[in-house]
């Protein structure tokens, strides 16, 4: 049984299909016999899922090529992006070809940006294989690559034509990456849905044990919540910023320690607690809410202490380079209770430094 | 006195201002005191115009940085694009910064694509300094870089917030590049405006002599015609293709001989005559019309014979890689009389080869 969520944005609508064993079910891809596809994946995913997917597509008359890029955030680069574009060109793919992104958030981001740029835009299909990418990259159309001077600094807003989420893929996902995905899941509870946060407090073990019903509900709800935020953002400019809870602090950790050493979700976990400390210092968040957030992150097997080897002062330059910075002033997402956040401008550096120090 | 053309596309409208000495007139840039700007230019334009432009902007309270990239089609690359993005990052430019593209078509294309991709899109202003870019790049929002495997294969559709065309810049433009621009000017006459073609037949010398009134009218009319085509394309998919008259043949010349050896306009000049030969072979174009086209191109000091060193067979692989190819079949724009073209699919390779041979 599948859950299907229709996401309507920018006058276009696309389905997110969530279920078991979807990689073998052609109908969810919204492809047609005779079309040409380039499947982009990485060297971790390829040995497990690539050949079966290609065989299934070919069996339905789709002509396939594939390109395998190195796995890891450190390869979310212009070079990898160029590798995908070169594969499209070397195989003479035209404007009517479709790119399929099979992998985690890095694959979705870099392949999505390649799809947006190849011949100024070809269609693409997201097949996210990690929990993080399933709850985060499926909605919103953000594609990007990193630059040595900043994360996600180069990219495009570009929507997929469909998203296929096969929960079976999580069976081969390392525990650490499953937990990293849960950091973004917990984020949705904190920023906008206290009932979902409650549900997570009672079902976190089911999720860690890959219970299919729990995962299906959890992924569906996260995509639904994100779709609400993104849709609202078309009129309300600040709304989408709430998705960045913990990300400005977290990006500083990732950037300073090198992308890939701390997983994105791990950095966001600590970043959310830093944002919670900021809220506390501003008198906006109760101690018991901070405790609930910390406890849930611990139960999800996520780090809750800042990296010891990183000096407190070294956060600021990274944070000032963040895309959320406007005219040199820090803008942060601050939780005010479970299920509610505020976007605040002009936060003093001393408060930021103390928030880091307390974490 | 300036001419202003308002281009309305995609729910957005922007002005193209055409006149003398506009680089010193702040109001045409639609900037405000306190904004930050990165000016992108090349090492040919920079010594002539850059400092005066920066001084003028700073005098009006705009905070400026600049980046100078190498001049030439051979530098319309991912490396140059990255150089611009790196300059934006190194100077801590935010989402509210504005990119100013000061130069010819290469600068407009690569800087426009950098603006589209930096933090997923910042505003940009086109200041085209060559005739070609003034009549071609000001309208349509096509930005791109080249790839070793194909021209303009990587890019985005991205509209400027304003276009400033200073006719004075043409005074420092080499004669050969002025003529190359006239190839695109003549193209507009052939594809959709026989009266404009007639006007060009009588005013081509005025244009070559940089008569201000003739240039103003000519540039305004070309932008207006292109805006008509691009606006119509929102409903009519094939309409925009007519702008590619001579380009599929021309791109083959540029790709085979190396971008920059033949100027784009020079390749288009010969390409348009090849398309005219195709039309003749299909019984669709009268000899006298071919003569008029050839004579006007000659008067504009453009090449009208194909490059001797390029084998006829070597055109086809390049043409099949063209973005206009659908499912491996050649699609060409074919003139049927002065002021009218048709987009034709499935043209036989033998006809293409004979068209090249006759040119």
From TrEMBL, chains A, B:
It is found in: Cytoplasm. GO terms for biological process: amino acid biosynthetic process; aromatic amino acid family biosynthetic process; chorismate biosynthetic process. Pathway: Metabolic intermediate biosynthesis; chorismate biosynthesis; chorismate from D-erythrose 4-phosphate and phosphoenolpyruvate: step 2/7. NAD(+) binds at residues 71-76, 105-109, 129-130, 142, 151, 169-172. It comes from the Bacteria. Gene3D superfamilies: 3.40.50.1970, Dehydroquinate synthase-like - alpha domain. Zn(2+) binds at residues 184, 247, 264. The keyword Zinc applies. Keywords: Amino-acid biosynthesis, Aromatic amino acid biosynthesis, Cobalt, Cytoplasm, Lyase, Metal-binding, NAD, Nucleotide-binding, Zinc. Binds 1 divalent metal cation per subunit. Can use either Co(2+) or Zn(2+). It catalyses: 7-phospho-2-dehydro-3-deoxy-D-arabino-heptonate = 3-dehydroquinate + phosphate. Belongs to the sugar phosphate cyclases superfamily. Dehydroquinate synthase family. It is an enzyme of class 4 (lyase). Coiled coil: none annotated. Catalyzes the conversion of 3-deoxy-D-arabino-heptulosonate 7-phosphate (DAHP) to dehydroquinate (DHQ). Residues 181-325 form the 3-dehydroquinate synthase C-terminal domain. This is 3-dehydroquinate synthase. NCBIfam families: aroB. GO terms for cellular component: cytoplasm. Residues 67-179 form the 3-dehydroquinate synthase N-terminal domain. Its EC number is 4.2.3.4. Its cofactor is NAD(+); Co(2+); Zn(2+). GO terms for molecular function: 3-dehydroquinate synthase activity; metal ion binding; nucleotide binding.
């Amino acid at each position: 049984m599948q859950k299907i969520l229709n996401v309507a944005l920018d006058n276009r609508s696309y389905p997110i299909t969530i279920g078991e064993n979807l990689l073998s079910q052609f109908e969810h891809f919204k492809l047609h016999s005779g079309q040409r596809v380039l499947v982009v994946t990485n060297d971790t995913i390829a040995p497990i899922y690539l050949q079966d997917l290609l065989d299934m597509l070919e069996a339905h008359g789709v002509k396939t090529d594939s390109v395998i890029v190195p796995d890891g955030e450190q390869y979310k680069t212009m070079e990898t992006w160029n590798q995908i574009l070169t594969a499209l060109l070397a195989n003479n793919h035209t404007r009517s070809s479709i790119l399929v992104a099979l992998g985690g958030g890095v694959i979705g981001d870099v392949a999505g940006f390649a799809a947006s740029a190849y011949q100024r835009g070809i269609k693409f299909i997201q097949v996210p294989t990690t929990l993080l990418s399933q709850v985060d990259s499926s909605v919103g159309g953000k594609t990007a690559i990193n630059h040595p001077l900043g994360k996600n600094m180069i990219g495009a807003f570009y929507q997929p034509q469909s998203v296929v989420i096969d929960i079976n893929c999580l069976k081969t996902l390392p525990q650490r990456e499953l937990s990293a995905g849960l950091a973004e899941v917990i984020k949705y509870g904190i920023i906008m849905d206290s009932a979902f946060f409650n549900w997570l407090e009672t079902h976190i073990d089911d999720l860690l044990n890959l219970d299919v019903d729990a995962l299906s509900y959890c992924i569906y709800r996260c995509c639904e919540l994100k779709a609400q935020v993104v849709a609202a953002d078309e009129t309300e400019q600040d709304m989408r910023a709430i998705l960045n809870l913990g990300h400005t602090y977290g990006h500083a950790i990732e950037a300073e320690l090198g992308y890939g050493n701390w997983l994105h979700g791990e950095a966001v976990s600590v970043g959310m607690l830093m944002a919670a400390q900021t809220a506390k210092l501003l008198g906006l968040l109760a101690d018991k809410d901070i405790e609930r957030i910390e406890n849930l992150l611990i139960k999800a097997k996520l780090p809750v202490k800042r990296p010891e080897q990183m000096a407190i002062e070294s956060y600021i330059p990274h944070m000032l380079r963040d895309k959320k910075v406007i005219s040199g002033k820090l803008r942060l997402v601050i939780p005010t209770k479970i299920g509610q956040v505020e976007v605040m401008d002009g936060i003093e550096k001393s408060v930021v430094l103390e928030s880091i120090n307390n974490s």
